Amino acid sequence: MSFLTLDLLIRDLRSLDFREIEWLFPFVLTLHNAEEAIWLPEWSKRVGSWFRPVAPGVFRFAVVVVTLLVYVLTWLSANSGKQSVWTYLVFGSIAVALVNVLIPHLAATIVQRSYMPGVATAVLLNLPVMSLLVVLAVREGYVSGWKSVAYFLAVTGVSAALIPALFKLGNKLGF
Description:
The chain has 175 residues and is mainly alpha-helical. It has helices at 3-15, 18-21, 24-44, 56-78, 85-112, 119-139, 145-172.
């Protein structure tokens, strides 16, 4: 891909509005989650105190549930108007995915001096796409002010509780 083609692609993306490209969120997150699902369980066994080892089936179960949840939220957001609860939930999820690039992916990779599965897709896909979506959502008024910060914090808290709960459920279900 030439720089001219890349420049035209970037200009085309900037001309789209949030509602037209919000479906990039679940698509990119699916690619990221797939990278993690393939390699993270084995990696988690080698990195010591940073992560508890997680069984491949349990981790993949949790990743599938989270990924499906993101598609449902995006569909609900896409079918609701600006400033809807669904759009704020998607925005909060996008912001969490953006922070997830730094913590744990880049931080763990640097501190452990070991590639954390998900870093490639986090840096190459999540970082630019989620950044663009955050900027467009705010710039175009899909979300605004302290309410967007509150939803980001709420989604962060729910995510922090949901992942371990899904791991437990996956264990109970025999994954």
